[in-house]
Amino acid sequence: MQILVTGGAGYIGSHTLISLHEAGYDFVVYDNLCNSSKESLKRVEKIINKSISFEQGDIRDKKSLQNLFKKYKIDSVIHFAGLKAVGESVEKPIEYYDNNINGTLTLLEVMKEYKCKKIVFSSSATVYGDPHTTPIKEDFPTFATNPYGRTKLFIEEILKDLYISDNEYKITILRYFNPVGAHESGTIGEDPNGIPNNLMPFISQTAVGKREYLNIFGGDYETADGTGVRDYIHVVDLAFGHVKALDYLNIQIKNKKPLIVNLGTGKGNSVLDVVKAFENASNKKVPYRIVERRAGDIAKCYADPSYAKEILNWEAKKTIKEMCEDSWNWQNNNPNGYIQGEKK
Question: Among candidates 297, 39, 323, which has minimal Cα distance to 203?
């Protein structure tokens, strides 16, 4: 039996493939490559010394998914596929609702058709909106402040209703915080299209000379230095969290309601904290300028990860220093990201 990894060629997905392999799981990757590169899969193949089953397609394409389920014996799904930029979602809400929600509905329809009832869903801490306090626990109220976050929240509700309709489903919802870093080999990492939406690739591209300076969105938040505070988690730690979530679903004797778990370090770092840590790790100066806040951004967001430790026996291990060192190692070895000829 195999695991279907939607969006498996992407940043988090590609790192999760390595963790799945190390845990002894077989998998097939399904990705439309709209925000990822097939080159990442080739590099993962070299890391794990094994060929990867890959099918190119869109999660909104029902026929393509049906063909996939006919071809492979899919036992469970790790669902990463989706558009993911907060700022872009504010500018293009219809595209985000169509891709993320309609795509997930199509995937769930095909899963139902082929009696596949285990799924790990890639959600986000954005579903907490602007939290009343930190650290954030799983039982905090949910209220997304942007279309991207709302798509994640709506999908969570869809999955809860799916379980109510048929409690044979085994569902884990992972709300993760801010993934950064790269595989220690420096051969796979975050390779965004165009101008990065996330902090770390913007910092690393500035350090490597690809960008003139870093834009820091907002310097007047109610934080120690005025810049936004986030819970940055190493992508390798995050990847392993998906394996632990899958393990949990597989050992369940009695089906329970959907499990919702935060994946974070429990520590908040400001943008300027990260800039300083990156400069120390890379021995490079990162020039920056503070600009207006972005729509949908909040002041503070970091996790209480204690439930993940209790229920999944998972905790983040890597420090902000290691996150910056691995990010720099990836960027320095790949100043232009993946091979341009291989990009979509």
Answer: 323
Q: Which amino acid is at 189?
A: G
Backbone angles phi, psi at 83, to 5 degrees: -75, 145
pTM of structure: 0.95
CA distance 89 to 304: 27
Q: Which two tokens stand for residue 130?
A: 């602007």
For residue 304, the domain's CATH number is 3.40.50.720
Could you tell me the residue range of the domain that residue 277 belongs to? 2-342
Q: Virtual CA dihedral for 197, 99, 264, 207, nearest 10 degrees?
A: -20
Task: Report angle CA 310, 313, 318 to the nearest 5 degrees.
Answer: 115
Quote the tokens at residue 178.
């801010």
Alpha-carbon distance of 251 to 283, in angstroms, equals 46
Q: What residues are labeled active site? A: 148
148, 169 Cβ separation under 8 angstroms = no
Angle between helices 11-22 and 235-251 (to 10 degrees): 50
- The pLDDT score that the predictor gives to residue 344 is 38
- Give the whole-angstrom CA distance, residue 151 versus residue 108: 15
Give per-residue pLDDT as tens, 262-286: 999 999 999 999 999 999 999 999 9
DSSP-assigned letter for residue 195: S
Question: Domain tally for the chain?
Answer: 1
Task: Please identify which residue in the block is written with the tokens 């770092």.
Answer: 269
DSSP per-residue letters across 256-296: -SPEEEEES-S--EEHHHHHHHHHHHHT----EEEEPPPTT
